[in-house]
Design brief:
Length: about 90
């Protein structure tokens, strides 16, 4: 079959069979496009869910690290007080 619709040689009009065939091709192409589009949407959704999970895990890590920093800061402040007391007792303070 040629690329375009063929004309009926008797009346120089495109036959309904040719138009039906072309319509079938268009419907088939649209179905393939829709399937590919749906696949892309599902992949996008999966990627978004995975990214959201990573964001939540990173936020949890940040919270844990902030708690560690606060704890370490408190411990260091305690050591500073102890060292100041020892330095004062030994006579190293100004």
């Amino acid at each position: 079959m040629p690329n375009g619709p063929t004309a009926d040689p008797n009346n120089n009009r495109v036959t309904s069979a040719v138009l039906g065939t072309k319509l079938d091709h268009v419907i088939s192409d649209l179905a393939a496009f829709r399937a590919e589009w749906q696949k892309c949407r599902e992949e996008d959704r999966d990627l978004r869910e995975a990214l959201h999970g990573r964001v939540l895990r990173n936020e949890e890590r940040i919270t844990r690290n902030e708690e560690r920093i606060k704890s370490s800061t408190s411990i260091l402040a305690g050591f500073q007080v102890i060292l100041s007391v020892i330095a004062g007792a030994v006579g190293w303070s100004k």
